[in-house]
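Review session, final week

We close the course with one last complete record, chosen because it touches almost every idea we covered. It is DUF4159 domain-containing protein, a protein from Paludibaculum fermentans with 277 residues. Go through it on your own first, then we will talk.
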Amino acid sequence: MNLRTVRWLLALGVFGVGLVCAFQKPFREFPGFENENDPLPPDYGEKSEWVFARLMYPPAGGFRFRRGGGMGDWSQGNSFWTMDYPRADRHFARALRRLTRIHVRSVEQPVNLDDGDDVFNWPWMYGVEVGHWSLTDAQVVKMREYLLRGGFFMCDDFHGTREWAIFAESMQRVFPDRPIVEIESRDPIFHVLYDLDERYQIPGEQFVESGRTYERDGYEPHWRGIYDDKGRLMVAICFNMDIGDSLEWADSPAYPEKYSALGIRIAANYVVYSMTH
């Protein structure tokens, strides 16, 4: 290959990266349930190879409320998808920078499935409080395409029989032909970065006062998933636990370190798995 060809390929690659970035939604912030006016890191605008993408979604009918009362517009924040936002996202971004060599953006990216093809720019996506979601028919189609095209979805912080039923209703519309199964401990996702054979229930911050690791009737933690035809885990389901709180409260002396340590390791494994499988 001659020098002229090499220069042409490099120029083409730079153009391609620029083209992808041009069609990404810019960084944006929304009001959240718990954490407002969280200061932006000074490098928040830096381009990076990995971003904590947070799924935006409409709430299920039985849970249509927002902080302060009223129905509100879920696409403008102050809805269930903003739980732990943005502190959990930014704490995890800092942790992942320290624990790996992944070039991580310091701020999150809220992603709306209704925003055209934007979701395809974010190959790893996190959904919180999915026991309160209700995907529309169009969002179901977009989510299925996103996952089958190589996307990875981690969901967390929902508890008990009722919330599982609400979560499963939307997820089974996404994949009516694919079962939700328990992820076996020998699965690579638990060993790609940290060996996580010894896992335990990760409670929300309520544990500090209640002393209970569970919520509602969610007594036993489950790490479940949905696989594609090649055995790649597409959906990683953290049920009856609250990894989001373990990230959000990782800097709190009152919240036990052992829960944050495991939460960060699980999420880090999921990120590295999604980038290598």
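Two points worth writing down before the exam:
The first strand starts at residue 53 and ends at 56.
The beta strands are 53-56, 109-112, 124-128, 152-156, 181-182, 222-227, 233-239.
Good luck, everyone.
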